[in-house]
Amino acid sequence: EQAEKDGYEHYMLKEIYEQPRALRNTMTGRIDEAGQQIVFPDLQLSTETVKGIEKIYIVACGTAYHAGMIGKHVIESLAQIPVEIDVASEFRYRRPLFKGKTLTIVVSQSGETADTLAALREAKRNGSSILAITNVVGSSIAREANHLITTNAGPEIAVASTKAYTSQLIAFYLLGLYLAQEKETLPSEERKSLIAALQKLPEQVETVLAHAEGIHTFAQSIKDEGHLFFIGRGLDYAVSQEGSLKLKEISYIHSEAYAAGELKHGTLALIQEGTRVIALSTQAELHEKMVSNITEVKARGANVLGIALEDNVELHRSVDDVCLIPSTDALLTPILSVIPLQLIAYYTSVALGNDVDRPRNLAKSVTVE
Ligand code: G6P
């Protein structure tokens, strides 16, 4: 087992550090040589079919669901197709309306999650076409879907998902760009510049990983906390949810991810002297609003770690600590901002002496409903 961990103390850490390679693998063969077009040789979606899609459902569980939240944002903004997202165990029983031409995207690292598989079957029974995003080629979900995008991240062993999540995000970026290309909803110059930014991400993840020393100290400082808050807006809110889940899964510290603008409608009552808050602010157009939310929690005594793009010097003034990530297109920041959150969860779990790779009560793949 030690050999399989490649010298890393845990599979989770190994998988966090494998992300640059995993992301490159997800992109391989899916971008043309000139970097101008998305080519999806394995996706049997003709231009005509793409143009006919009236609505998309995204269905998944756990971390894959959090990837889907980003996917919704990406597809709606690039391809202008309305997207509804649900956790698989809810989707199945709420009788979703399959009117017109729908595409249901099921996201699953293992391809075997029982609730996700059941949701796939329910959507199929209702006449929807199914596209699976999975890491396991021969899995049940891969076999039962009509269309398949494999993430090619390599086997993920740690229960807490890391490289599968970021490679699912890459799959969504490629898919969003592909749908936009076929529907002609995005000027080709914008597509090219997004593709270039996408291709830079693996290297930028390496940069984030190489400057992660401060995270050990931060993890030490939160390990005895009873609860924590993650706040963000838009894509940052979706990433906050993944960061909060990671921390709960392996450190067993309670945390809550909150849409920053919603705090004042209730949760702000829980903020008191010394409450630890992790605030994500990577979206330039939402930055001012985030600063005012940070000021709101600081005024009640919160201690805030800000996660922001390197060119955002303004944020320094409003937080106690800051973790900077390289600049990229606003749509692509989740790939970079989630890395410090994965490391915070990892080092906190290590500091507490928990079984990082096999957290209590959880399984890597849940094959019961
Ligand atoms: C389990 C794992 C989670 C995972 C979820 C969905 O609960 O512990 O890490 O996100 O299943 O798994 P899937 O294989 O469908 O992505």
Textual characterization of the structure:
- The structure is a single chain.
- It contains 13 helices and 10 strands.
- By secondary structure, the protein is of the alpha/beta class.
- The strands form 2 sheets. A 5-stranded parallel beta sheet has the order 2-1-3-4-5, sandwiched between helices. It has a 5-stranded parallel beta sheet with strand order 7-6-8-9-10, with helices on both faces.
- α4 runs parallel beside α8 and α11 runs parallel beside α13 (333-351).
- The longest helix has 23 residues, at 188-210.
- It binds 6-O-phosphono-alpha-D-glucopyranose.
- Residues 61-64, 108-110, 113, 116, 159, 161, 362, 364-366 line the site of 6-O-phosphono-alpha-D-glucopyranose (G6P).
- Homodimer.
Q: Mean of the pLDDT scores?
A: 95
Percent strand equals 15-25%
Radius of gyration: 20 Å
The molecules bound to the chains, other than polymers, are: 6-O-phosphono-alpha-D-glucopyranose
Percentage of residues in helical conformation: 40-55%
Helical segment count: 13
Order of helices and strands: HHHEHEHEHEHEHHHEHEEHEEH
Our measurement of the CA-to-CA distance between the termini, rounded to an integer number of angstroms, reads: 31 Å
Q: Helix/strand/pairing class, anyone? A: alpha/beta
Biggest sheet strand order reads 2-1-3-4-5
Biggest sheet features? 5 strands, parallel
* Tally of DSSP β-strands: 10
Q: What would you call the shape? A: globular
As residue ranges, the low-confidence spans are: none
Protein name: Glutamine--fructose-6-phosphate aminotransferase [isomerizing]
Subcellular location: Cytoplasm
Keywords: Aminotransferase, Cytoplasm, Glutamine amidotransferase, Repeat, Transferase
Function: Catalyzes the first step in hexosamine metabolism, converting fructose-6P into glucosamine-6P using glutamine as a nitrogen source.
